[in-house]
Specification:
By secondary structure, the chain is mostly helical. Helices cover 81% and strands 0% of the residues. Helix 2 (19-31) packs antiparallel against helix 3, helix 3 runs antiparallel to helix 7 and helix 4 (65-83) packs antiparallel against helix 6 (117-129). Its main location: membrane.
């Protein structure tokens, strides 16, 4: 249960203000089909995070535990710093999408998550817990919560939530995970 809750909280918080959350808001605004957009986010996230969790678990099984703890510490501390920088979303010039709301969302989300901090965090959390299915469940639920807010409430929430504070809290979570991993490496 710790793997599900830990990965859920970390990804839900780190997704706030992330480029994929901005993409969710943009797709929901463009298509006006929130359930199709959220369904596309779900499919893309499961595929992307299952891959990331599998890779993270595989790496953790083949790298000595002390080295792994040190690598995780560096990654989490780096994610904390990365989180402090706000993301932006480049617009595509208003071209009409070819494949409809669901398929467009699946494709764009899967590509946007490649190398994104939430994907890399999923790899790191899976390496820490060595539970790829549970981590994928937690990170997918975290993505759906954060991106669901953008899809369904984006217009109303954008003026009320100060993203600067959300980024600071998220960075603090990454720093906490990083310092715990450093402590584990040092004790190991």
């Amino acid at each position: 249960m710790e793997a599900v809750v830990g990965s859920f909280v970390l990804v839900a918080a780190s997704e706030m203000g992330d480029k994929t959350q901005l993409l969710a808001f943009s797709l929901a605004s463009r298509f006006r089909k929130p359930w199709a957009v959220l369904g596309g986010i779900f499919v893309a996230t499961v595929a992307n995070h299952a891959l990331a969790s599998s890779v993270g678990t595989w790496v953790s099984e083949h790298v000595p535990s002390r080295v792994m703890a040190l690598l995780l510490a560096v990654m989490f501390l780096g994610f904390g710093l990365w989180t402090l920088k706000p993301d932006t979303l480049d617009e595509d010039g208003g071209k009409p999408p070819r494949f409809g709301a669901f398929l467009t969302t699946v494709g764009l989300f899967f590509i946007a998550e490649m190398g994104d901090k939430t994907q890399l965090a999923t790899m790191a959390v899976a390496a820490r817990y060595q539970a790829p299915v549970l981590v994928t469940l937690g990170t997918t639920a975290g993505m759906l919560l954060s991106d669901g807010l953008a899809v369904f409430l984006g217009d109303r929430l954008s003026g009320r939530v100060n993203m600067k504070y959300v980024r600071w809290v998220t960075a603090a979570l990454f720093f906490l995970f990083g310092f715990v991993s450093l402590w584990t490496a040092w004790r190991g």
